[in-house]
Write a structure and sequence with these properties.
Helix content: 25-40%
Distance between the termini: 31 Å
Number of helices: 19
Shape: globular
Structural class: alpha/beta
Organism: Streptomyces lavenduligriseus
Strand order of the largest sheet: 3-2-1-4-15
InterPro entries: 4Fe4S_Fe-S-bd, DPD_II, FAD/NAD-bd_sf, FAD/NAD-binding_dom, Glut_synth_ssu1, Glutamate_Synthase, Helical_ferredxn
Keywords: Amino-acid biosynthesis, Glutamate biosynthesis, Oxidoreductase
Largest sheet: 5 strands, parallel
Pathway: Amino-acid biosynthesis
Protein name: Glutamate synthase subunit beta
Strand content: 5-15%
Length: 495
């Protein structure tokens, strides 16, 4: 470590956000441009260089965190970039989108604020692009083997890049008109500007990866024909089958899934639309679901000029500190977190009746009611106890012209016919079944990411992509030197 006393003398300081009144008027990233680099070396100095760094275990990618913290503290950015990219294909994505389980596992976090690992990672990635430390790495020779990757989210892109660099000819099939999966149309621009995605796509094109957009395998291209055409197929379609809310009034107009709403606002940012047809402008918005997708809807609705926005979370409001009995270190704790979107809602008072910022905790939706034209006008809710049972006498109604359901995803979408055409076996949770080597029941077909694991974090998605690439490389050539950071059965640390 560069400063053995850094963790004792330097307080935690995070990348500052732009003022709320400024940032809600645009779709740019919420952070102050250029404000990270002046503070990041001292923040990296807070790393204790632990004998047993649990941040490694908390991150499925196995990021070499103490190593690149030390290099950043010494301002050796090239070496830091090399160590960071040794385990992570897309650190500029994870540095912006990951909830940082590595920080929960930081040894310093036992009794102090953790090292700002996520910010250090983002600073290295951005500096690497600025300084030209991330050139394309095309293979020296081709293997003569071909691989189709279905899906261009973080899993599909990581698998494709690893396999391309190993010398295989890789084509990525994406059903949307642009590459990126949920990073393209599910993640709002204010969380990650799409220029970061475009840079990586350009790098992959220069390395030799081929992209086939607007092509839904199973609908536009027969899945069996694709299997016959390529030596191996990787299914990385994600878990896009959204969960429903079967309550009275669900059929009313004005109630949409989050992933019907968010892509349209992203298309406005892409220049495809002038205004979203589901814009929240002037409407009373209620978001059902307390997770990250709900927060993305919240920040989007605020920027669109909603009259009010309230987010419902069925869980009780967590405390500000880790509960050592239920969430002991180094597990990822359930604590009260204030995202940029929640900070905006709190300062702008978008939901005056909410418990905190824009959220109503321990709230369950009972029904919707509408007007004579079939449009939703109210959401009726009730408070629930720790067993999610209604608390008598707590029912009330919220005005609602637009309701967004952000209840998570249950598994891969089956509408395109991919699963049925290939005859893929499914697990008990509705995800694609696979063995210890990521192989499905169909020879030469592998499954990775949320489609097989279930809904998870971006770091797990990238780790799955890297690991399935090693499995495919071994299948095609008999051995592999590609890293495999996780197995299909690995899970996050829990009590």
């Amino acid at each position: 470590m560069a400063d053995p006393k850094g963790f004792m003398t330097t307080p935690r300081q995070e990348w500052p956000r732009r003022p709320v009144e400024e940032r809600v008027r645009d779709w740019d990233e919420v952070y102050v441009p250029g404000a990270l680099l002046p503070i990041i070396s001292e923040q990296a100095d807070r790393c204790m260089d632990c004998g047993v760094p649990f941040c490694h275990q908390a991150c499925p990618l196995g990021n070499l965190i103490p190593e690149w913290n030390d290099l950043v503290s010494r301002e050796d950015w090239r070496a830091a970039s090399d160590r960071l990219h040794a385990t992570n294909n897309f650190p500029e994505f994870t540095g912006r989108l990951c909830p940082a389980p590595c920080e929960a596992g930081c040894v310093l976090a036992i009794n102090q604020p953790a090292v700002t690992i996520k910010n250090v990672e983002c600073a290295i990635a951005d500096r690497a692009w600025e300084e030209g430390f991330t050139p394309a790495r095309p293979p020296e020779r081709l293997s003569g083997k071909t691989v189709a990757v279905i899906g261009s989210g973080p899993t599909g892109l990581a698998a494709a890049q690893q396999l391309t660099r190993a010398g295989h000819t890789v084509a990525v099939y994406e059903k949307d008109d642009r590459i990126g999966g949920l990073m393209r149309y599910g993640i709002p621009e204010f969380k990650m500007e799409k220029r970061h995605l475009e840079r990586r796509i350009g790098q992959m094109l220069a390395e030799g990866t081929k992209f086939r957009t607007s092509t839904a395998v199973g609908r536009d291209v027969p899945a069996a024909g694709l299997r016959d055409r390529y030596d191996a197929v990787v299914i990385a379609t994600g878990a896009t089958a959204w969960r429903e809310l079967p309550v009275p009034g669900r059929e009313l107009s004005g109630i949409y899934q989050a992933m019907e709403y968010l892509p349209l606002s992203n298309r406005v940012c892409e220049g495809d639309l002038e205004v979203s047809p589901l814009s929240a402008a002037g409407k009373h918005v209620v978001i059902v679901g307390g997770g990250d997708t709900g927060a993305d809807c919240l920040g989007t609705a605020v920027r669109e000029g909603a009259a009010s926005v309230t987010q419902l979370d069925i869980y009780a409001q967590p405390g500000a500190e880790r509960d050592e009995d239920s969430d002991p270190w180094p597990t990822y704790p359930k604590i009260y977190r204030l995202s940029a979107a929640h900070e905006e809602a709190r300062e702008l008072r978008t939901a005056p009746a909410a418990d905190a910022d824009a959220r109503l905790f321990a709230a369950s939706t009972l029904r919707f009611t509408g007007d004579e034209r079939g449009n939703v006008r109210s959401l009726h809710l009730v408070e629930v106890d720790e067993r999610r049972l209604p608390v008598p006498g707590t029912g009330r109604a919220l005005p609602a012209d637009l309701v967004l359901l952000a209840l998570g995803f249950s598994g891969p979408d089956r509408e395109d016919g991919l699963i049925e055409q290939l005859g893929l076996a499914l697990g008990p949770r509705g995800t694609i079944a696979r063995d210890d080597g990521f192989a499905t029941n169909v020879p030469g077909v592998f499954a990775a990411g949320d489609a097989a694991r279930g809904q998870s974090l971006i770091v797990w998605a990238i780790a799955e992509g890297r690991a399935v690439a090693a499995a495919v490389d071994r299948y095609l050539t008999g051995s592999s030197r590609l890293p495999a950071p996780i197995s299909p059965t690995d899970r996050p640390m829990t009590v």
